[in-house]
Amino acid sequence: MSEAKNPQVLMETSMGNVTIELFQDKAPISTRNFLSYVKDGYYDGLTFHRVIASFMIQGGGMDENMQPKKTKFAIKNEAANGLSNKRGTLAMARTSVVDSATSQFFINVVDNPFLDHQGKTPDRFGYAVFGQVTAGMEVVDAIKGVKTGSKAGHSDVPVEPVFITSVKVVED
């Protein structure tokens, strides 16, 4: 029996394309959740609404006017899966509540080990890594370099919106 290959998605952005491998073996809940949003076309037209050059770029929940899009239910946090928040990895964004991730994700632009699972308490639980950029890291680096400011009560918002044009599963 051959081992199932991890799914790949192509994320088209207004600054270029990024290919991502999803770790369904280590993060099955996060992967299934992300793919359900991809298959619904949920991310199409949303933005990277939070960009911190020395940290990460976050998207998957807001439009260019910082209006949140309705999400599905929150999922179980898989931060204890042994994966680390290294440069180029994707992780589920969440609130201070451990199991609160829905549609938002972030791409680490530097190694962020402090985001890894370090304990069972909410402040130490960490952020679930569920994917890795396999092509287009130069696009991620271009996005992290955009000028940011404040908008609609949010900080670190790109002055010129960076759109997620589409996210599609790459078929073999």
Explain this structure.
The protein has helices at 28-39, 137-144; strands at 8-13, 16-22, 46-52, 56-59, 89-92, 105-108, 129-135, 148-151, 154-158, 163-170. The chain is mainly beta and 172 residues long. The protein has a single domain (8-170), classed as Cyclophilin-like (Cyclophilin, Beta Barrel). The chain has an eight-stranded antiparallel β-barrel. A two-stranded antiparallel ribbon has the order 8-9. A hairpin with a 2-residue loop joins strand 1 (8-13) and strand 2 (16-22). The two termini are 18 Å apart.
Structural class, from helix and strand content? Answer: mainly beta
Level-1 CATH class name: Mainly Beta
* Dominant shape: globular
Mean pLDDT metric:
96
Name the CATH superfamily assignment.
Cyclophilin-like
Under the CATH scheme, which architecture would be assigned? Beta Barrel
The CATH topology, please? Answer: Cyclophilin
- Assembly type of the chains comes to single chain
The order of strands across the largest sheet is 1-2-7-5-6-4-3-10
Give the helix level as a range of percent.
10-25%
The tally of helices reads 2
Percent of sequence in beta strands: 25-35%
Q: How much is the radius of gyration in Å?
A: 15 Å
**Span between termini:** 18 Å
Largest sheet report = 8 strands, antiparallel, barrel
What is the succession of H and E elements? EEHEEEEEHEEE
Low-confidence stretches: none
- The overall number of domains is 1
Count the strands?
A: 10
Catalytic activity: [protein]-peptidylproline (omega=180) = [protein]-peptidylproline (omega=0)
Family: Belongs to the cyclophilin-type PPIase family.
EC number: 5.2.1.8
Domain PPIase cyclophilin-type: 12-169
